[in-house]
Structures are given as C-alpha cells and as structure tokens.
Amino acid sequence: MADRGARALSLPEDWLAHPDPILALNRMGSFDWDLDSGQFHMDAQACEVFDVLPEEYDGRPESLAVRVPPPEAARLDAVVARAIKDGSENYGTYFRIRCRDGTSRWTHTQGYIRRDESGRPRRVVGIVRDATQELADSESRSLRAAQDEALRQQTNVVQVISAALAHARSVQDVIDVLKDTHGIRHLGAASLVMGLVEAGRIRLVAEGPAGSFVPGTRVTRTDEPYPMSEVVRTLVPRFIESPEEFAEGYPILWPHLADLHITSAAYLPLIAQARPIGAMGLLYSDRRGFSAEERAVLVALGSSIAQSLMRAMLYEQDKDLAQGLQQAMLPRTIPSVRGADVAVRYRSAALGRDIGGDWYDLIPLPGGSPSGGGRVGAVIGDVQGHDTHAAAVMGQLRIVLRAYAAEGHTPATVMARASVFLHELDTDRFATCLYAEADLATGVVQVVRAGHIDPLLRHADGTCRRVAVEGGLPLGLSAEFGRLEYPVSTLELDPGHTLLLCTDGLVEQPGADLDDGMRGLTAVIADGPDDVRALADRLIRMAEERGGDDDVALLLLRRGVPQTPRAGGRLRQHVAPGDPEALVQARHMIRAAVRAWGAHERADEIELVGDELITNALMHTEGSAIVTLRALDSSGRTLRIEVEDSSSALPRRREAGAEGVSGRGLLLVDRLADVWGVEARGGGKAVWCEFRAP
After folding, report:
1. Is this model's pTM higher than 0.70 or not?
2. Cα(426)–Cα(424) distance, rounded to whole angstroms?
3. At what angle do helices 388-406 and 411-424 cross, to 10 degrees?
C-alpha cells in the first residue's frame, strides 16, 4: 500500500545514536540500513513494532522474514528499489506483519535515502510504527462517510419526489411519480407495491416492475396476514430485515417473492387526516437491515406520499362534483334546427376546480319557414369567476335569456332585460354575452354584444373574417350604470357560411394581445374542415394542447343550402332614439331580408317606406321604435313591415308646401305600399304596410 503523503526526512547523520524522544512517545521505532554491509539496525521500539526481541534479532533483514509475509516483503522491496532507482530521497508505504500469536498488524515505514557525492545510495534511515488503529479509524471514517452520502442521496430523492408530488392532481399522477425512473428506484428498491383502503379492503393500485404483484392480492382484507394489511391495522411501519424474517413472518406471501431475490422490505402505512388511506411496500434485493436514519427517511417519504394521495383524491372528488354541476347547468341536448348544422363544445379549465361560468345555448324561436328554415337564437357567454358561484349565476342567466328570447323580444331587449336581471340578483359577478338571432330562411342574423369578443364568419370558400359588432357594457354593469342600450348589428349568413361564437378562453393567451389571438384563430378556422363537428373538435383539441387556466365554450352554426323558396320568416329590431347607426342597421336588415325572400323588385320601395316609418316614430314620439318585417305567406310574395312606438297618437297626413321639408312621409307610404294602416297596441301603436311582390 503506497504511503499517503510521504515526506522527506530531515535527519542528522548521527540521528540513530540520538533517537528523538518524540518518536518513542508516539510508539515509533527507528532503523538504520547500511546498504554496503547489508546490516539493518533497529532500536528497541522498532523491534517492538516488528514483535521481535532485541536479543533474538541478528541485524540482518532476512531475519525479519518470520514477521513479514513473502507477498508483503516483495512489495516492500519493490517500493524501496524503485525509490533508489528513481533517485528519490524518501519513500513510504504500509505493509502487514504477522505477530507471534498469528494475528496481523498493519505497519507503516518511512525511509530517507542517503547518497554519496556520486549519487550512489549508501544508507537508508527511517522510522516504523504500528498503523493498525490509524487504518481502522480511516476505514471507519470512510464507512461513515459512505453511509452519510447514501443517506444524503436518499434524502435528496425524498425531496425530489416530494417536489414532484406537489404537482400531482390525480391518484394516477402520484403513481406515475413513484414509478418514474427519477422516483422511487433511486432509493434502491427493486420492487414497489401500493394499495388504497376502500370499504375495509386494500385495493392494489400500483406495482412495479409490471407483473411483479403476487396473485390473489389485487384486493385483500385488512385482517389478512399480509404486511400491507398489518401496517394499515396498526398504523406502524414494518421493516423486514432479512429473507428469514420475511419467510417466518409472512409464510403465505414469501413463496411468491422468493424468485425476486428479496433480501429486505419496508412497508409503510399511508396516513392522512389521522386515518389510513393506504399502504406502500418497498422491496430490496441488495441490502439487509435499515439504520435508524434510513427508517426515518422512509417514514418521511410515506408521509409525503400520503398527503399527496389525499390531495389527489379530494381534487378528483371536487372535479367530479364540479363537472357534474357544470354539465347540469349546460344544455343537455342541442335542438335540431331546420336549415342549419350546429356543433357545440365545452372544455374546463386546466387549473382550479374545473368549473366556471362559460356557457352556450341554442334557442328555437317562433316563426320561420316550415320547409325552408327555422329561427334560432344562439348564445355564448362567460360569467366572471371560476367557482360554484359562477356556475350557479350562469345557470340562472342562461334560463332567463332563453325565456326572454322565447317570448319574442328583440335581441336588444333580450340583452337589456338579462342585464337588469343579473343586476337585481345582488351578486358581485358580471357577465359578458353575445346573442345572435338567425332567420335561416333568409340568412339574416341580428347580433347584440355585451362586452364579449366578436363572432367570426367563415365563408363557403373557406375564407374567414372577424365580424365587428358594436357592443354595450357587460351584463350586470349596464344596469348598474344606467346604460341599457345594446346596438343591433345585422349580417347575412349565406348558404354554406358558418358563424362561430366562442369565449375568450379559445383566444386569449398570457402575455399575448387579444387581436393577435383573434387573427390566429381566424387562420385556424380558415384551414379547418368544412364539417362543423370536425371543426369544433379541432378547435377544442387546440385548446387542450395549449392548456391554460380559463374555460372554453364555443358554438358553430352553419347555414345549409335551401331546398325551397325562402318565405314565412319574421325579423325584429330595436332602434333607439339618437342612434343613427341603429337606423342604418335596420335599413340593412330590411334590404337583406326582402332580397333573400325573393322580392328583389320591391326591395328599394320597402326599404324607403320602412326608413320613413322609423324616422317618423323617432321624431314625433318619445322613446324608441321596434321594426318588424314579416313574410305573410309561404310563397314569400306578401311582405308586411310594422313600426311600433310608445305613443297612442295617430299619424296625420299633412300637405307639404313647395318649400316644405316635411309632411310628405305618409304620402310616400300611401303611394308605395299596397295597403297600410295603424293598430293600437298596449301602451302605444303600430304603423304597418304590406307589399305584394310580382
């Protein structure tokens, strides 16, 4: 054994005649080896190190062979010869001697080589000492260091596993962490088993490696003679330190483990909230016994796993409850609509309790053509928050929106009344919403928006664009601030066109601009399939892959190709005073509907008369006007336009002078309409006109 840190000896020429008292005090002996004569002189302490008596030693190195075994002597001679040949001044090494009683002793020697002026070695002087205790202490320190390092590594693994378990949201997540290559195997276990307590039984939920479980132990009772059952009953860990102990303690189980070469095992109860929720077993094939520190580490590991399992189980329970509540609040089925294909999808948030206030709805409306297409209201909305309160508010809001729409109110009125309802709920939540009322016979869609994102329109050729819809305040806030005006935007949904309504979870991403998100979504829709169900699946899959902490709701409505002439429809729009844009939208609605119903020849006349009636209502009465356009027969040849206001005063025909700027309205109506009249309505009147297309 080479000397560790051998140093050159600075010894005087007559050092042997005057040995240093410190050497004797430290149980070190000295020697002087005359290389010319071969004499090897040792003092009394050196003789004691070699376990020879001074009087029986003759000064020859060969005489020490009785104490130095041949292999050790050969190695010692090689060390000295190499030092002499290399020109070294000193050497040092450890070697064994055999004592009188037959035991071995480690000895250390350190020599200093003296040379003459030519460099020829003449003498070697040095010391010898008993190194047995030194090496024993060093070995003990190395062993302790190795044990400390192993414990440190195990502790680090526990910390790594605990950190990974902090992100586990399901029981399967916990199992995956434990079976991962960075997990439990770093603790040196050859096999892992874990079971959960269910109704007085333990159900095995994990075993590794695959196929290593014992037959008949998938489900066991807690009173059966198995180690997992024992730790669940006693709540005390069970450390099995040898195969013999395993075989004696669990004779039913041990024969099935013999082929796995198990030498020890640790079974840990998984305790959470002061009750056992399961048990875990770690089986080892390369160790016997467990130190106190190792047991403490494994118990800490079991505690961390138990807490993670409890969190995962509570999370799964909350998730099931939340999803059940969410599904109960959303429509169970979507009604079929004549003349349209519809697809709806919902994705819960990646974080939180997987419940929120996003919703969709499709509301069949009265009117429409029996054969050419129905009237339908499409709703998309989002109540603020992600909790059961948001879901409850969403459910109530969905019901009242459906009720107001089914009563036949205009889109603006539906939205305004829903805002008042949410405000009167006395909740701290507001909601964004978009309501689109579509007449599939004509393709005319009236849209109102309450703080929600704009809809998207995909054309039959695949191009897609964002439809800018003027909006009002979110529901609940508009009533609070007294701003219940919701402008109505009108767009035409031609055959093959698809209208997409969605919540912002499909568009928004952290750190990204909303407009950029809308442009990205537009590109995805343009590249997507024509079928609305396939397109909806693609969009929701995109949301799943992207993740995020917001819900996603979407509704796709694609107008089909008409089979018969479009007739029998009805459209309504609210026009507020002082809102020129609403008047423009009303004109657009009239023109689009008349042309869609096949009365192109009279479209300009009907639009002009409608504009005149609406303008009169706004100028000569207080409040807003409601314009309604109807097809009175299935052929679509007879059209009726009505304008309601809140005044009971009847319109009067006046003669306009040559320079007059008013007074020609009713004259124009009388000349252009085939027939017209006035009907009293509760709290007001309606002026109506009918037109017969050729």
Report:
1. no
2. 5
3. 140
